[in-house]
Specification:
Blueprint lengths: L1 H26 L2 E7 L5 H12 L5 E7 L4 H7 L5 E5 L8 H7 L10 E5 L16 E7 L6 H4 L1 H6 L2 E5 L11 H11 L4 E4 L8 H16 L1
Length: about 220
């Protein structure tokens, strides 16, 4: 019975996600679904991305949290529209939450929409939101064993951001072993090593993303 319920939930979500995807396609909005554990640096990464792209693209952010609106306020301070979704305990965003949030955004005035999912390496990987690209962040302090513990997140994501590289020398994180495991799980995954704090590696991410955004709109 539990399996049937889960299948029903995912099937319903997938139907709404397809509606979202069609709408984003019609409006030419590139959508990034950003997933990570709490504390991995999602909001800092979003702010760095805004800094690198806001002069060339019209951006907006949907912020998902169990509670609070702190992250959305930080985004708005950068002059970028932000919608806050508080799930009230749910460990992920779903397609219907995104569909409802779109009523608060003018998609005709957006080139690039970032969805910051709820901090979790489990549930968000299972729920399609209608996004163009799925990216996940793993920070160095979390350890290099996470691909073994949460394989679905790594197999379902298109991009992996290894954040807080400035802390690598202060931990026992084995970067080469980590990348080897990731490569075996998902050989097509694009990997960026960077530090949102120092700015190291951020430019490579911005340049790559700019190319994707330009290609998407042509």
């Amino acid at each position: 019975m539990e399996i049937k319920i889960l299948r029903d939930v995912l099937a319903t979500n997938e139907a709404v996600a397809k509606e979202n995807e069609r709408l984003f396609g019609e409006k030419k909005v590139f959508v990034l679904n950003l997933m990570a554990s709490p504390g991995a640096g999602k909001t800092s990464f979003i702010l760095r991305t805004i800094e690198g792209l806001k002069d060339d693209f019209k951006m907006a952010v949907v912020e998902g949290d169990i509670a609070s609106k702190v992250d959305a306020e930080r985004v708005r301070e950068q002059g970028v529209p932000a919608v806050q979704i508080n799930t009230g305990g749910a460990c992920h965003l779903d397609a219907n939450m995104i569909k409802n949030s779109l009523a608060l955004l003018d998609l005709d005035e957006i080139d690039f929409l970032i969805i910051e999912n709820v901090g979790n390496l489990v549930c968000p990987a299972e729920f399609n939101l209608g996004e163009t690209l799925r990216a996940m962040i793993l920070s160095i302090p979390e350890g290099d064993d996470k691909p073994l513990k949460y394989p679905l997140m790594f197999t379902e994501s298109h991009v992996l951001i290894v954040n807080k590289m400035d802390l690598l020398d202060w931990t026992d994180f084995d970067l080469e072993r980590f990348k080897g495991v990731v490569g075996r799980l998902n050989s097509k995954m694009k990997v960026f090593e960077l530090s949102c704090k120092s700015g190291e590696g951020v430019e490579d991410w911005i340049d790559w993303l700019k190319t994707r955004l330009i290609s998407f709109r042509t």
